[in-house]
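If you are new to this repository, start here. Below is one unmodified record pulled from the training split, so you can see the exact layout before writing a loader.
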Amino acid sequence: MPLLVRAEAHPGFRDVSFLYVATGSRPWMRSLFASLAALHLGQGTPSHQAVADRYYYTALAAYKVILEKGEAQGTEDWLLSAAVFFYLYEQWRSGVASNIRQHLEGTAQLLRLRRTNRRAVRQQAIASTPVSTLSAMDRIAAESFLYHVAIDSIVDPDLDTLSSKFSWADVNEGLGYNPFPSASEAANSPVLGHGGAPSVYRLAFEVTRLGRHWPLVLYDRLEAVQLHKTLSELKTVTLIDDDPEAASPTVRLYLLAIEIYLLKLLDGSEDSDSNIHGGVFVTSSDLYVQHLAQAAMSIIRDEFCTHNEDDYGCLASSTDLCWPMVVLVCTIEAEVDIQLLKECLIALWRTSYCGYVRRIALVVERVWTWRTWPWMGTWTEPWMEPWVGSWQLPGMENECIRDGLCLLTQQGGLARFLNVV
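And here is the target side for that same chain:
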C-alpha cells in the first residue's frame, strides 16, 4: 500500500495496520501480497512470474469462495483493498494478456455497494445498523480506480460495457472525501494529486469511450461538444494566467493528447457548430494537430527524459505517460519522435518492470509499423490488416505514412494491436 501513495500525500495513507489485522484470519490475503512481492522482486523474469501466478491464483480462488458464500457484506475495507490489489497484479504482470477488466468491474461493484449502504443508513437513521463510514481507503480506492480505468481505456475493447458497471457518483463520493481535514488538498490526494488531475483522467476515459462510437450520431456529438467544453474549462483552471508551468507536466501532457483526440471525434460533422476544428477529415498531418503533438513531445523530452552518454532514463512514474503516448504514436510523423517514445518506454520498463508498460510498448511499436508499412507490401500479421481499406494522408499517395488518428476511432480501439494470434 505505501508504494501506491504519492510522496506528497499525508502519512496516514500509508497506515496499513488494518491489513495486518485482516491477514491474521485470512491466509489468502498473505498469498495475494506474496504474489505482488514476487512480481516486484522478479523484475519480469519468467521464474518469478510463475511463482507470483501461483500465489495469485491461490488468493483469487479463496476470494471467489468468500464472495460466492456471502461471507462478506461487501463494505469491509479489507475486501475493497483486496479488489484493488487484484487489479494491480493484473496491471503489473508481465504477460501480453491482462484480466484487469474483471477486477475493475468488481471494484466498481464494491464502490457502489459501499455508497448504497451509507445512503440507506442515512435515510433510515437506524443506529443499530452497521455503518460503512468513509475512510482513507475509500479515497485511495476511488483515485486508484479512476486512474486505472482511464489509462487502461486506450486498449480496452469494450468501454461501454465497463462504463455500465459503475457511475461517476460512486467514484466521486470517495474522491470528495478528505480523511485528514487539517491537511492540504494535495496531502489528501494519495494517488492522483491536485490541480485538476481527477477531472483530467475522467475526461481521458470519456473521450476514449466516445471514440468507439465514431462517426458520432447526434447525441454522441452533443456529448463530444460538452467534453470539449470541459476540456476548455480544465485548461482555464489548470493553466492559470496562461502560464503552462502552473499545471503539472503530466496534466499538461494529457490535456494536449485529449485535445487531439477530440479534434478527431468532432471531425466531419455536418453541424458546423459541433465541428470545432472548422473542417472535415482531420488527419495526423493537419497543421494544428501537429502543433499539439509537438507541444506534447516537448513536454516528454524536456520534463520527463534524462539522457547522457551511457544511459537513457524517464522521470515519470511507471504508467503516467502511457495513455498520451498511444495518442501521440497515432499522430507523430517523424522518426526522431517515435524513437523518443520507444526509448522512454524502454526506460520505464527497466525501472518498473510493469507489464502495462510492456503492453503499451508493444502497441506503440505495432501502430508505428502499421503506419509506415510499404503500401504495396504484404500484411504479415493479423493485427496489420487494414480495417476499412487503407488510409492515406493527402498529397502522399505514392510514398505515404498512414493516418493514425483513424485508429483512435475504430470500434474496439487499439486492443487489436495486442493480439498475438
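Two things worth knowing about this chain: The first strand starts at residue 305 and ends at 307. The longest helix spans residues 100-124.
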